[in-house]
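User: Structure please.
Assistant: Input sequence and predicted structure:
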Amino acid sequence: MTGVAKQTGGCQCGAVRYRASGELGYPHICHCRMCQKAAGNYFLPLAGAMRKDFELTRGEPKWFRSSDLVRRGFCGDCGTPLFYDIPEADSINLTLGSLDDPDGVKPVMQSNTGSKMSWFHALDGLPVEPQPETPDRENAIAASNHQHPDHDTKSWPLGETS
């Protein structure tokens, strides 16, 4: 368990939002090839929310049946991966990167390490790119940000009602 009793989250564009009122269980990093492809990344961090404690608070995800047992929920507008779901189970897995406070849920385990990138252990040794002295690009990106903020909003985009 994470020790955090309530979590909110959603997609990058804000079209799909959710709330989990209970603690999240088994926060872990999955390295299986199916999760790699679903995340478009080298791994997928997940944690389970009990269905009775889970609700969608805005929008509806699209679903892709990645196997006979599992479906994966994502935003049909921006593509953000949100859920790993076995419909018959008592819980639904949330992608930890879609949480409003992803730093608040630390993974406690890794799974399916047979598909883990062989060089993954060396990432901490990579050189760190220095911050530019003239942050023009970063300022331009920040000034034109269309990403939903990391908290619930009454409407989105801000100022619109939906």
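Residues 154 and 160 are 9 Å apart (CA to CA).
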